[in-house]
Specification:
The protein is an alpha/beta fold. The chain has three domains: 110 residues, Rossmann fold; 118 residues, Up-down Bundle (Four Helix Bundle (Hemerythrin (Met), subunit A)); 146 residues, Heat Shock Protein 90, CATH 3.30.565. Helices cover 53% and strands 17% of the residues. The protein has a five-stranded parallel β-sheet with strand order 2-1-3-4-5, with helices on both faces. A five-stranded mixed β-sheet has the order 7-9-10-12-11, with helices on one face. It has a two-stranded antiparallel sheet with strand order 6-8. Strand 1, helix 1 and strand 2 form a beta-alpha-beta unit. The longest helix is centred in the middle third of the chain and has 55 residues. The two termini are 33 Å apart.
């Protein structure tokens, strides 16, 4: 449910905006409140905390820029979502509104229902994305602090190792080679600290590589040092998973037109995916039953089909019922001439009446009690399927399980 606050002194305009938003954003489920003055708008904003404000620039008791300052004082930093409605189409006024904190603007009497709803929906999505990035930036700063503290301890160990190596001048070539590797690793770690502290875009897998090499090459006698390294590794894995998922989303959005289709065996793709998920299957004692007899082959982009199946099976294992082993059925068939990939599990399930409209939203999670997961998998599956002209149908019952039916093509064939 999205809350939208209309602040406009003209009742006819408010009625028009309410009707436009009610019709154009019906799938998002919106709740709308109204205020006819700046004073009433500030009071209602403070009490109601809406997801977006549709703000008329010309109000009887103030103007839009002053209202923006007042709204910003009531909202946490970088959380205010305002679409300014200006009169006359002054670009200078629009620029001032955007520079003052508005996410977008519209010119009164120059937009229709479609433009209004698209602008408001985009502003809400942009604001939610901004808040998500801020949260993960904060988490990354926490990881960086842990890294700096741990690397200070590692530097002390490095100096001790250097002193010992200086005393063992008669060591053999193996020890010399090891010391050289340690020196290169330490230099990489120094470079890494700078990159991790200043550049969010630095590939996180470099960090994983450095720590893998450190664990392989160095010996730690203090148990607490091993504990610290393990904690760092856990944090990096969590961050790496999030960044990898985000990279996958970006790659999917940019790759249209660059991929080619081929004839693919469902069994081959499933074997590949199950091999990747073997550790999770062993850990959960899960069982996967496959049946591709009805539709053994498909013309598709191989990497896309693999990603779809990998995400669905990974979710089925991740969100299994704690009191029973996962049992997953995977099959392919045709219905009404359309190829279907079906994945059914006996896991936690979902309340589709409550969450159905949000099922494929980016970063949306429905089982917060499960520590893993970033809320990207189903979003990515849906985007890939839609890219081929297909669709996703879901049936689910809480604590009983979920069935995903992936209509891999649309009625016009491969996308």
């Amino acid at each position: 449910m999205k809350r939208i606050l209309l602040i406009d002194d003209n009742p006819e305009d408010r009625m028009l905006y309410r009707r436009y938003l009610g019709q154009g954003m019906a799938s998002m489920r919106v709740e709308i409140a109204e205020a006819s003055s700046g004073e009433d708008g500030l009071a209602l904003f403070k009490e109601w905390q809406p997801d977006c404000v549709l703000l008329d620039y010309n109000l009887p008791d103030t103007d839009g820029l002053t209202m923006l300052e007042g709204l910003q004082a009531l909202a946490p930093p970088d959380t205010l979502c305002v679409v300014m409605i200006t009169g006359g189409g002054s670009e200078t006024l629009a620029v001032r509104a955007l520079n003052s904190g508005a996410l977008d603007y519209l010119v009164k009497q120059e937009f229709d229902r479609e433009l209004l709803t698209k602008t408001v929906a985009h502003a809400i999505e942009k604001n939610e994305w901004r808040q998500y990035v801020a949260r993960y930036h904060s988490e990354l700063q926490g990881v960086n602090r842990q890294l700096r503290d741990s690397l200070a301890e590692l530097t002390t160990i490095r100096e001790e190792l250097h002193d010992k190596n200086a005393q063992l001048s008669s060591a053999n070539e193996a020890i010399i080679a090891r010391n050289q590797q340690l020196a290169r690793t330490n230099q990489d770690l120094d470079n890494f600290v700078y990159a991790a502290s200043h550049d969010l875009r630095q590939p996180v897998n470099n960090l994983n590589g450095l720590f893998d090499e450190l664990r392989r090459s160095a010996t730690f006698h203090d148990p607490e040092e091993a504990v610290v390294l393990r904690l760092i590794d856990d944090s990096l894995q969590s961050l790496s998973t999030t960044i990898t998922d985000l990279a996958a989303v970006v790659q999917e959005q940019r790759s249209h037109g660059e991929q080619f289709t081929e004839s693919i065996s469902f069994a081959d793709v499933a074997t590949d995916v199950l091999q990747v998920l073997q550790p999770q299957l062993i850990a959960t004692q899960g069982e996967v039953e496959t049946d591709f007899n009805a539709l053994p082959m498909l013309t598709y982009v191989r990497s896309n089909l693999r990603t779809i199946l990998l995400n669905l099976l990974s979710n089925a294992l991740k969100y299994h019922e704690p009191n029973r082993a996962p049992y997953i059925r995977v099959r392919s068939y045709e219905t009404d001439g359309l190829p279907v990939l079906e994945v059914a599990d006996n896991g936690l399930g979902m309340n589709l009446n409550r969450y159905g409209n949000e099922l494929f939203h980016l970063f949306r999670r429905f089982h917060p009690q499960v520590g893993e997961g970033t809320g990207v998998g189903l979003f990515l599956v849906n985007r890939l399927v839609q890219g081929h002209g297909g669709s996703v149908a879901v049936e689910s019952q809480e604590h009983q399980g979920t069935t995903f039916r992936i209509f891999l093509h649309g009625k016009n064939g491969p996308g």
